[in-house]
Amino acid sequence: MKRLVQSHMAEARWCHSNHTPTVEEYMQVRTTSSAYPLLITTSFLGMEDTTEEILIWATNEPVLITASAVMSRISDDIVGDEERKHVVSSIQCYMKEHKISRKCAIEELRKLVENAWKDINDACLAPTQVPMKFLMRAVNFARVVDALYKDKDNYTNGGGIMKDHIQTLLVKKMSV
């Protein structure tokens, strides 16, 4: 929670000073401000086998949680960049830093999302001190991001496909 508040303060400073950070600075702050690391970590609290070691692992920025947050941030930026006015997006940072077009920046950022998926897969395949059910919880958060931001901002604009997904999951009877 402390990191989340600090990241929001950094964003406020950028906004008020009209600052465009480097992509690296942006990702460091905005992956935290997305609250994804906090959400994933706090989701472990309700799990039966949660130990102090697992929570320490989760709060030390493991690749799996970091990659999920990167996916979340970049995917949201790609589909929601035009609507944002309060702080720059990864697209704007990438364009300024590399002096390239918006289209090229999006292509490069999509590669970072693809690499984040590879990091997630690698983290699940490599031996770890954390049981698989905790790793899968983080993977499922990444899957949600994929559903929410695949082609458009289905989080902000909850009709259409997201409405169908929610109805299928929670309302409609499933036949076996």
UniProtKB/TrEMBL annotation:
<keyword id="KW-0456">Lyase</keyword>
<dbReference type="InterPro" id="IPR050148">
    <property type="entry name" value="Terpene_synthase-like"/>
</dbReference>
<dbReference type="GO" id="GO:0000287">
    <property type="term" value="F:magnesium ion binding"/>
</dbReference>
<keyword id="KW-0479">Metal-binding</keyword>
<protein>
    <recommendedName>
        <fullName>Terpene synthase metal-binding domain-containing protein</fullName>
    </recommendedName>
</protein>
<dbReference type="InterPro" id="IPR008949">
    <property type="entry name" value="Isoprenoid_synthase_dom_sf"/>
</dbReference>
<dbReference type="GO" id="GO:0016114">
    <property type="term" value="P:terpenoid biosynthetic process"/>
</dbReference>
<dbReference type="GO" id="GO:0010333">
    <property type="term" value="F:terpene synthase activity"/>
</dbReference>
<feature type="domain" description="Terpene synthase metal-binding">
    <location>
        <begin position="1"/>
        <end position="119"/>
    </location>
</feature>
<dbReference type="Pfam" id="PF03936">
    <property type="entry name" value="Terpene_synth_C"/>
</dbReference>
<dbReference type="InterPro" id="IPR005630">
    <property type="entry name" value="Terpene_synthase_metal-bd"/>
</dbReference>
